[in-house]
Specification:
Elements lengths: L3 E3 L4 E3 L1 H29 L3 E7 L1 H17 L3 E7 L14 E5 L7 E16 L10 H7 L2 E6 L2 E2 L14 E3 L2 H9 L4 E5 H9 L3 E3 L7 E10 L6 H22 L1
Parallel strand pairs: 3-4, 3-5, 7-9, 7-10
Antiparallel strand pairs: 1-2, 5-12, 6-10, 6-11, 6-12, 7-8
């Protein structure tokens, strides 16, 4: 297929070459327009944002996220609780997902946002008036743990679990209620346990010896261009969430 006609004095397009040039110019214009639209959308704080995460994380961030969307009224928000296995979200469309704990290998990008601390607690009712040592309570009472990202929140490295937990739940509020009722020793998020400690319904064990932290991550699909609105929300959470958690855990 000849695109050019050469002579000793000139170089001209053949009929096929004219068609090829016309089509190529159209493609280039489409590419330029697509690039212009993408660049425009990257720089504008408007449109919809879809977030996945555990309900208790949304509860912790609710005031902050509400303030964020008040500052950017052209943005809209859709919140979803993620399924038991976050890997089920691989094929779903979302802008940002909040997760706690080590992230499994995947095509996602995980950005650390804040630390969520856990400690061991016992319901005051569970002692039945007996003055038992913390070690004795731990050896004799059922264990309750929270599941985060398919992991059990427990200080495994310093305090190995000698028996399987009787209660393993995703909701820290439900877990806290189980421990308050004296049904188990629980490894609870400090932000949820503090109020019950102040009310005299929970007591911390081992004087905080086994307190540990799990990282809260902002997770998004691996891609070269992250929309500016997603970067903006991610940075806002990273800036304000650690301050909020420090206040609630104090």
């Amino acid at each position: 297929m000849r695109l050019l006609e050469r002579t000793t004095r000139s170089l001209t397009l053949t009929e096929v070459g004219e068609v090829f040039l016309h089509q190529a110019q159209q493609i280039l214009r489409q590419v330029e327009e697509t690039h212009r639209q993408i660049t425009k959308s990257q720089g504008e704080y408007s449109g919809a944002l879809t977030l996945y995460g555990a309900e208790y994380l949304f509860d912790l961030c609710s005031e902050q996220v509400s303030d964020f969307f008040e500052r950017y009224p052209a943005l809209s928000l859709t919140l979803h609780s993620y399924p038991e296995n976050p890997q089920d979200l691989m094929d779903k469309r979302f802008d940002l997902m909040l997760m706690v704990g080590e992230q499994p290998d995947s095509s996602f990008i995980a950005v650390p946002l804040a630390k969520l601390h856990f400690d061991l607690y016992m319901g005051v009712e569970g002692t039945n008036g007996h003055q038992l040592s913390d070690e004795a309570l731990l050896n004799n009472m059922p264990i309750a743990v929270q599941e985060t990202s398919m992991q059990q929140c427990w200080p495994h490295a310093r305090l190995p679990l000698l028996r399987p937990p009787r209660y393993s739940v995703q909701s820290p509020r439900l877990l806290t209620n189980i421990v308050v009722q004296g049904k188990a020793i629980g490894c609870l998020p400090v932000v949820f346990a503090n109020h019950e400690v102040q009310q005299g319904r929970l007591k911390a064990l081992f004087d905080g010896k086994y307190r540990f932290a799990q990282t809260i991550y902002g997770v998004y699909h691996s891609r070269r261009y992250v929309p500016a609105k997603v970067k903006l929300l991610l940075e806002d959470i990273r800036q304000h969430l650690p301050v909020l958690l420090t206040q609630l855990e104090a």
